[in-house]
């Protein structure tokens, strides 16, 4: 299948991965060879070791990706969502997203989520109801890295606007996220 915006050749997600928990770099082969991987904060060797110890948890049903919290945040539980919880470094990936989403979306998502793993290792809080999602420093930082990589690959703002449309945020918050990231709203 031809993709309008192909991902780097070294990045080869294993779309045939069954449900379950697998080493991150087995599911997202080549992630450690990408330009964004070398731009993550910290020591490259330590980041590679973290990637080797991180899990990809493939789940059924619709969805995208997220870092499994140790405990489901109260604001998420109050909204009626149930998350995979883990004491390990684990990125939850909806199988339908891995298989059916454009390769660029999957690529940008895993770049974003692995940065969250590194942020959590730094002791930063990923899940907080005190700061709106689109204003959280951890989210803006992770989205900024993904947007920078997309632009490096020639992805236009029209694509990024769709990619950044998060279903659970208001239009006002969505427009604020675009502003934070320097993505034109039209």
Structure description:
With 186 residues, the protein is of the alpha+beta class. It has one domain. It is 45% helix and 11% strand. It has helices spanning 24-27, 35-39, 44-53, 74-78, 95-100, 103-121, 137-152, 157-163, 171-181; strands spanning 12-13, 20-23, 28-29, 55-59, 65-67, 90-94. Strands 2-4-6-5 form a four-stranded mixed β-sheet. The protein has a two-stranded antiparallel sheet with strand order 1-3. The longest helix has 19 residues, at 103-121. It is globular and about 40 Å long. The two termini are 28 Å apart.
Note the main attributes of this structure.
186 residues, single chain, 9 helices, four-stranded mixed sheet, alpha+beta, 45% helix, two-stranded antiparallel ribbon
Which range does the strand content fall in? 5-15%
Biggest β-sheet: count, sense, barrel? 4 strands, mixed
Average of the residue pLDDT scores = 94
Structural class: alpha+beta
Helical run tally: 9
Number of structural domains: 1
Q: Give the total of beta strands.
A: 6
Low-confidence stretches: none
What is Rg?
16 Å
Anisotropy-based shape:
globular
Q: Which percent bin holds the helix content? A: 40-55%
Set down the secondary structure blueprint:
Elements: E1 12-13, E2 20-23, H1 24-27, E3 28-29, H2 35-39, H3 44-53, E4 55-59, E5 65-67, H4 74-78, E6 90-94, H5 95-100, H6 103-121, H7 137-152, H8 157-163, H9 171-181
Parallel strand pairs: 4-6
Antiparallel strand pairs: 1-3, 2-4, 5-6
């Amino acid at each position: 299948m031809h993709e309008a915006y192909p991902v780097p050749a070294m990045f080869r997600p294993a779309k045939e991965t069954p449900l379950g928990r697998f080493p991150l770099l087995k599911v997202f082969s080549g992630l450690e060879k990408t330009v964004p991987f070398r731009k993550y904060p910290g020591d490259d060797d330590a980041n590679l070791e973290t990637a080797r110890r991180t899990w990809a948890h493939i789940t059924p049903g619709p969805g995208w990706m997220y870092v499994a919290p140790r405990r489901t945040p109260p604001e998420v539980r109050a909204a009626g969502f149930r998350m995979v919880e883990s004491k390990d470094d684990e990125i939850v990936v909806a199988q339908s997203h891995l298989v059916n989403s454009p390769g660029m979306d999957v690529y940008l998502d895993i770049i974003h989520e692995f940065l969250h793993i590194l942020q959590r290792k730094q002791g930063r809080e990923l899940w907080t109801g005190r700061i709106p999602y689109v204003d959280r420093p951890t989210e803006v930082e992770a989205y900024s890295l993904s947007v920078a990589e997309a632009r490096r690959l020639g992805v236009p703002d029209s694509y990024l606007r769709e990619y950044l449309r998060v279903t659970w945020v208001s239009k006002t918050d969505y427009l604020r996220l675009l502003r934070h990231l320097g993505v034109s709203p039209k």
